[in-house]
Amino acid sequence: MSTVTRANLVEHIYSRVGLSRHDSSMILESVLEKISGTLEAGESVKLSGFGTFSVRQKGERIGRNPKTGVEVPILPRAVLVFRPSQILRDRMNGIVDAAHGVDGADD
C-alpha cells in the first residue's frame, strides 16, 4: 500500500484531463488552498460522495504525563475532523450500490 502524494495527484489530473503538468499542479494547489482557507475560517468542507472535513474546538482539560504521573493543563485547541460519506464507507467495505455505481473497484 502506498501513500498518495501531491505529485501522484498532479500526475493523475494530467493523465485524466489532458492539461499540462504545470496547469494540473496549479489546479491541485488552488483546490487545496481553497479547502485549507475554508477550514482555517472555521467552516466545513463537504465533498459529495467523499466526506466532510470540519473543525472542532476542544476545551481546556487536565492531562497526565504517563511517565511521571504529573498533571498538566492541556490548552484549548482546534482539531480537524473527517467524517466519510456513506458512499465512501461502502466502497471501503466492498459493498455494491447500484444507485451510486459503487462496486469497490478502482477508477
From TrEMBL:
Signal peptide: none annotated. It holds the Pfam family Bac_DNA_binding. The keyword Translocase does not apply. PROSITE patterns: HISTONE_LIKE. InterPro entries: Hist_DNA-bd, Histone-like_DNA-bd_CS, IHF-like_DNA-bd_dom_sf, IHF_alpha. It comes from the Bacteria. Coiled coil: none annotated. One of its GO terms (molecular function) is DNA binding. SUPFAM superfamilies: IHF-like DNA-binding proteins. Keywords: DNA recombination, DNA-binding, Transcription, Transcription regulation, Translation regulation. NCBIfam families: PRK00285.1 (NF001401). Belongs to the bacterial histone-like protein family. This protein is one of the two subunits of integration host factor, a specific DNA-binding protein that functions in genetic recombination as well as in transcriptional and translational control. PANTHER family: DNA-BINDING PROTEIN HU (PTHR33175), INTEGRATION HOST FACTOR SUBUNIT ALPHA (PTHR33175:SF2). Heterodimer of an alpha and a beta chain. This is Integration host factor subunit alpha. It comes from Gluconobacter frateurii NRIC 0228.
